[in-house]
Amino acid sequence: MAIPKEQLDSVQQRVMDIVARYGAREDCLLQILHDVQADDNSLSEAELLQVARSMDIPLSRVYGVATFYSMYSVRPRGNYIIRICESAPCHIVGAREVIEAFERALGIQMGETTENGRFTLEYTSCLGVCGVAPAVMINDQVYGNLTPAKVEEILASLDED
Ligand code: FES
Hints:
binds FE2/S2 (inorganic) cluster; single chain; Glutaredoxin
């Protein structure tokens, strides 16, 4: 599908600035995609195309990297990405109840984004904080020892932003 010219123009300078910081080196592609994604937690078709052009590498290569790593998303995501640990230690001590509490409170299922674009629910593997399982990471912040009641508290505090 063709991308509107205005949309390409609006991302062009931003992506070019990011690529320029790294010198269009392909070994920096992961960091470049990370920086490009930072504005809205996802990589649009226009952004992927501009990265490929600015780095002079095939779009298929950029798309392949963007879809291979779970830290990137080519689908729109919310302002808050809630990553719920599904590894065994968290699972054993109640991750399922935590997942259900998030789904119930937000009215969405795992993998979905709320209609207002604020929250996305995703699974993650071990966050490295098994001592406070069950745990989740919301953007860069880790929360541990979760219960359904704490889920409500966390969401209420984020809603105040
Ligand atoms: S298993 Fe969940 S944080 Fe390690």
